[in-house]
Amino acid sequence: MNDCVFCKIIKGEIPSEKLYEDDLMVVIKDICPKAEKHYLAIPKKHFKLLSEMTAQDAVDLGNCMKKAGELAETLGLQNGFRLIINQGEDADQTVFHLHMHLLGGQKLQETDYKNKD
Ligand code: 5GP
Ligand code: ZN
Fold it and tell me: Ligand 2 centre and the CA of 112: distance in Å?
């Protein structure tokens, strides 16, 4: 997608702090962290919603989740982390390219997400 910020990050057209990349996904630091450690695991294929996924997308997203778990220690999330996927208006999704938030590096409270300040 031409106007998608995450597609541009994936293509290297917008700079980001990339911590991991393979054929399927990238892991970057969130530009506006909501916890001590806040990463985004972004599948390279552009789609907005879980409901738009093909069967292959589901397999690929499962592999992205598996990789996020495997990277936890490297990312400093060895004590645990919260995995969030915002979907649509009510969840305040702001970038319409499906992505997973990985939040941690501190003891998280129920209300931490989107309410850090
Ligand atoms: P959403 O609200 O759609 O679930 O999450 C979008 C996330 O992307 C937000 O946490 C926001 O801070 C992050 N974000 C938006 N633009 C950029 C960017 O250009 N670079 C990085 N690293 N993160 C971004
Ligand atoms: Zn995109």
Answer: 27
